[in-house]
Design goal:
By secondary structure, the chain is an alpha+beta fold. The chain is built from 5 helices and 9 strands.
Length: about 200
């Protein structure tokens, strides 16, 4: 896992990313068998209060930013990627991301490992989503980077500048994502779960 700090002394964005991969199949399905269950038109998504970093259009804006990045070929470190298909919003992946972002914010930590020891795959499967592929990227914007108009732009710029985060965003494997962002004072916790 990589931890990187971006920004100045006054404003910092902290990131973490893990690669994705198929699950190991050890968790018994608890919900829909289809991994497309939960895919919805992002225009119909209204995140509950407190899960969009004070930005009413958070879900649509984040999905647009990630799909815009995926639409262009780019290098992620030493690895080159061509344009890849756009992702859809998935409410089950959004539930997993919301639970993790809320947990990190309420307990004041920043990690892919949940306070209960769960992995991103555990949290995704707990919603009923059974991934063939999963990936998770996190951001922890602070200071001016945590403003509603800055969270997505600053997180995207930092993710794309980091080879590990960039590879997760540019992977052709996922077809959907869900995300949430919890803000407390001058800090925000952003979790994005991708899957197929």
């Amino acid at each position: 896992m990589r931890w990187q700090t971006w920004g100045s002394v006054m404003a910092v964005v902290v990131l973490a990313a893990c690669g994705g991969g198929g699950g190991d199949g050890d968790a018994a399905p608890r919900g829909p068998a289809s991994n497309n269950a939960g895919n919805v038109d992002v225009r119909s998504v209204q995140l509950p209060a407190g899960l969009g970093c004070d930005r009413p259009d958070f879900a649509a804006a984040l999905l647009h930013a990630i799909n815009e990045a995926r639409a262009q070929g780019r290098s992620c470190g030493a690895e080159s990627f061509g344009a890849v298909p756009a992702l859809q919003w998935n409410t089950l992946l959004g539930q997993a991301a919301a639970g993790h972002a809320s947990d990190m914010a309420s307990k004041g930590y920043f990690s892919h490992t949940g306070s209960d020891g769960s992995s991103s795959a555990d949290r995704i499967r707990a919603t009923g989503y059974q991934p063939r592929y999963h990936g998770e990227i996190l951001a922890h914007p602070q200071g001016s980077h945590s403003r509603p108009d800055q969270v997505i732009a600053q997180s995207m710029a930092s993710w794309l500048a980091s080879p590990g985060h960039c590879r997760v965003i540019m992977s052709p494997s996922p077809n959907a994502l869900g995300a949430a962002c919890v803000k407390q004072g001058q800090k925000a916790w952003l979790a994005v779960d991708l899957g197929s």
